[in-house]
Amino acid sequence: FSMSDFARKGSEATIAAHFYTFLNLTNATLAEKEDKLWEVFRFSKQQSSPTHQVELGLMLNTLLVEQRKHHDSRQLLTELLAIVIVSKNGRVEAEVNQALYENAKAMGEPVNALSYMERFNAINDSLHLEEMQKQIQDLNVKFEVAQKDHEIERQNISLQQGRRNRNFLILIIGLLAGMAVITILYFRSRIR
Question: What are phi and psi of 107, to 5 degrees?
Fold first, then answer.
């Protein structure tokens, strides 16, 4: 689910609505949604990958923030931070740090908020740098392929030109030989 185009490109509200529909929570109260998401989150800790656990935890965190349960949110986010380190997924680690920043800001802890924001920015910069390096590498590969294609095309043109020159040379030699034969036959017939 998390790797689908829908999950990557959809808004957070759209994804949450889809998820709530899937869990049959569309008309549920916030407390019912929270209980169900806690249940799903606990189940995911036993059955899912660390990345999916963190993504479900972040959905639960959004609901906790919506209810202004900042202390519960902090405990959940601290747990998610431990999980995200195991997942080695920079994108979700950045999301957890951003959520921790928002939490610390809401709880009136500017020093912690700054720390989380700096970590979020460092991870985001690292991810951006990796993406840029990958794009540069992809462009280099495309450039090298284009260069080789161009070189192959140039060699093909050179081979075709060589063939044309050889065929032209054979034609000239054939014409000269033909003219020589005709000239010899002509002079022979005149001598008799």
Answer: -90, 5
Q: Provide the Cα torsion 155, 158, 160, 162; round to 10°.
A: -130
pTM higher than the cut 0.85: no
Angle between helical axes of 50-66 and 12-22 (0-180°, round to 10)? 100
Q: Is the torsion defined by CA of 41, 45, 50, 52 positive or negative?
A: negative
Nearest partner of 59 among 123, 131, 10, 5, judged by Cα: 10
Written as six digits, the tokens of 91 are: 């994108």
DSSP states along the chain:
-TTSHHHHHS-HHHHHHHHHHHTT-TT--HHHHHHHHHHHHHHHHHHS-HHHHHHHHHHHHHHHHHTT-HHHHHHHHHHHHHHHHHHT-HHHHHHHHHHHHHHHHHTT-HHHHHHHHHHHHHHHHHHHHHHHHHHHHHHHHHHHHHHHHHHHHHHHHHHHHHHHHHHHHHHHHHHHHHHHHHHHHHHHHHH-
**Helix axes 90-106 and 110-191, enclosed angle (nearest 10):** 150
Confidence label for 6 from pLDDT (cuts 50, 70 and 90): low
Half-sphere exposure of 67 (CA within 13 A, CB side): 16
